[in-house]
Design goal:
The protein has 149 residues and is an alpha/beta fold. The chain has a 6-stranded mixed beta sheet with strand order 4-3-2-1-5-6, with helices on both faces. A hairpin with a 4-residue loop joins strand 2 and strand 3. Helix 3 packs across helix 4. The longest helix has 20 residues. The radius of gyration is 16 Å and the shape is globular.
Length: 149
């Protein structure tokens, strides 16, 4: 019908905030246009904790895997971009579509959100894993804002 908004099918995604020590993970859904933190998977010299990532994929059955791509403030690729590219390629093992989204400042924003919640008495100590998962929430929400409803 002309003039009616296009309906987009429900979609569940897992968002990843890649780091050399930890990978923050969040689940997002188009139907609610929101995301929630799941935690962080270790990333060691042996590589990511693929078993933990696989468990999240089995639990949430996402339609899309979303990875934050680090850029410098001027929009150029960061030194970490090649490592993120390798992680994106490795996620192909799950047979799901993988997309990237600009993650500039998500770790800083995530830390600020958590710091505000702590100051308001809504949470206790802020751990690094919590910051990584909060950054993954912001990555998911950026994508949902651009591709949602």
């Amino acid at each position: 019908m002309p003039g009616t908004p296009e309906h987009k099918p429900d979609l569940t995604l897992l968002a990843f905030d890649f780091g050399h020590r930890r990978i923050g993970v969040a689940v997002g859904q188009r139907v609610t246009a929101s995301a929630s933190p799941l935690g962080a998977a270790a990333n060691t010299d042996d590589g990511p904790d693929w078993r933990r990532i696989e468990r999240w994929i089995e639990e949430w059955q996402p339609d899309l895997l979303l990875v934050g791509m680090p850029y410098h403030a001027d929009g150029s690729r960061s030194d970490m971009s090649a490592d993120v590219d390798a992680f994106v390629a490795a996620l192909g093992r799950f047979g799901l579509p993988v997309a990237t989204v600009d993650e500039r400042y998500t770790s800083l924003e995530g830390r600020a959100v958590l710091r505000d919640a702590r100051a308001a008495g809504r949470r206790g100590r802020i751990r690094k894993e919590t910051v990584d998962a909060a950054a993954a929430v912001l990555i998911a929400e950026r994508w949902l804002n651009d591709h949602g409803q």
